[in-house]
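Sequence, please.
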């Protein structure tokens, strides 16, 4: 039997094309935000650990990351954190409380909480973006 080998990105696109629903959408976004948060974590550890080489090294890294672009990217980071956190809680609730039939309703509740989270986030982070 011949199986066509697909790249990882093509696999996710095919999955989305076959199963266009809220569950697949959140499944894809959960993986994407997980990868983004992992990359951020390594970058964060790099910047913070530069303090091991003295205050000059740490301060030079801070000058690199204290720009309007990075402040804007912090908003994107908060979007990733908020979605990943709330979707993880949604999955946990659906699995442990046998609420898989209500997963769509739980998704929309998590979406409403996410919207409130983003209102607070934007009120804190947008002034930082435009203060430079």
């Amino acid at each position: 039997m011949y199986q066509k080998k697909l790249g990882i990105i093509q696999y996710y696109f095919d999955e989305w094309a076959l199963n266009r629903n809220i569950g697949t959408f959140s499944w894809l976004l959960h993986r994407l935000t997980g990868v983004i948060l992992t990359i951020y974590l390594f970058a964060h550890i790099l910047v913070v650990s530069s303090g091991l080489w003295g205050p000059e090294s740490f301060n030079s890294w801070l000058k690199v990351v204290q720009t309007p672009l990075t402040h804007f990217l912090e908003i994107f980071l908060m979007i990733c954190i908020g979605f990943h956190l709330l979707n993880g809680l949604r999955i946990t609730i659906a699995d442990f409380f046998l609420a898989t039939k209500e997963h769509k309703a739980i998704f929309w509740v998590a979406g409403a909480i996410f919207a409130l989270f983003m209102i607070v986030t934007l009120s804190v982070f947008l002034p930082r973006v435009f203060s430079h």
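The chain has one domain: 8-130.
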